[in-house]
């Protein structure tokens, strides 16, 4: 393979499809769909790939909006991941519209630039990232078993190749009390909302004994029907995060103990529901990341130099990184703009947001092309993955 010619072709192809790719991002922005309801989004992405000659499988892993599109039946299997879900009320405030458009752009460029048989290009439409569902279910269904490498980009305030992610567990508490008139017969009631509130108080007291990397945050999801009716049912949900899953589990047990203590103190019955889909920390592969960094140099783009261990979130991409070598670099859409805010959503379709789509498409495709061309680089990445 003439890798220089292939890389020239990739940059040219992405530039030629600029309007089409940024239009994908803008369409997803205009019609945001939340997790597992990304019907129009999935149809838009899968439809374009099908027109480009990719073989489509829809509804993979039992998820209506998940899809697998593949081109080429030989060579290294490289998966480009296309997230597509939006946040309730905030729309694409996490930038999944850019993620999807970049993945599609990279796939289309590779389909036309790579020699026949050089690699098998796979695009996975992964729904419900914000719910921590999509990639976990794809892994469980074996969708990644024949994948050698997985890649995606994420928009951010900075250009960053390595960004660490926290493990995450979810737990939901439901308290059952006894309703009564809050003024006339308060002694007859058992206040379920008090159970939820005391749980928050217990967790707040626990915070002084948590490691620096640990995060615990929650919301009350049900708290009663009227001020003059003692709530007979209340509920709250919590996320527990840490750098490693052992600490996630240890802290989660303490959080459950806070809920149990609150239920005992208020006389409520407690139901604990834990989501089996625990999100793993991102497994960093430095050989893979270095390969991506070289593509930034090729394009004349500078990394920000921001610390990899600051402002960490969580994502089901961490679970993918545990089963196959994975990278999850960030492309910039505006300094000082942070995810999960309205300004971030608007920035995804700004001039910088459109540039991020093109940057993501080019860097993903260039990295994939080098993987296809170099057995030595593939071996180095797999060796590091196996060793860690």
What does this structure look like?
With 388 residues, this protein is α/β, with parallel strands linked by helices. It has 2 domains: 3-165 and 282-387, Aminopeptidase (3-Layer(aba) Sandwich); 171-274, Alpha-Beta Plaits (2-Layer Sandwich), CATH 3.30.70.360. Helix content is 43%, strand content 18%. The chain contains 12 helices and 12 strands. A 6-stranded mixed β-sheet has the order 1-2-4-3-5-11, sandwiched between helices. A hairpin with an 8-residue loop joins strand 1 and strand 2. Helix 1 (3-16) packs antiparallel against helix 11 (351-373) and helix 6 packs across helix 7. The mean pLDDT is 97.
What is the compact description of this entry?
The protein is 43% helix and 18% strand.
Strand content: 15-25%
Task: Report the end-to-end length measured between terminal Cα atoms.
Answer: 31 Å
Strand tally: 12
- Tally of helical segments: 12
Question: What is the average per-residue confidence, as pLDDT, rounded to a whole number?
Answer: 97
**Helix percent band:** 40-55%
The assigned CATH architecture of the largest domain is 3-Layer(aba) Sandwich
Q: From the helix content, strand content and strand pairing, which structural class follows?
A: alpha/beta
**Looking at CATH, which topology of the largest domain would you report?**
Aminopeptidase
Question: Largest beta sheet: what is the strand line-up?
Answer: 1-2-4-3-5-11
Largest sheet: 6 strands, mixed
Q: What order do the helices and strands follow?
A: HHHEEEHEHEEEHEEHEHHEEHHH
> What count of domains describes the coordinates?
2
Provide the CATH superfamily of the largest domain: Zn peptidases
CATH class division of the largest domain:
Alpha Beta
Structural shape: elongated
Q: List low-pLDDT spans.
A: none
The radius of gyration is 23 Å
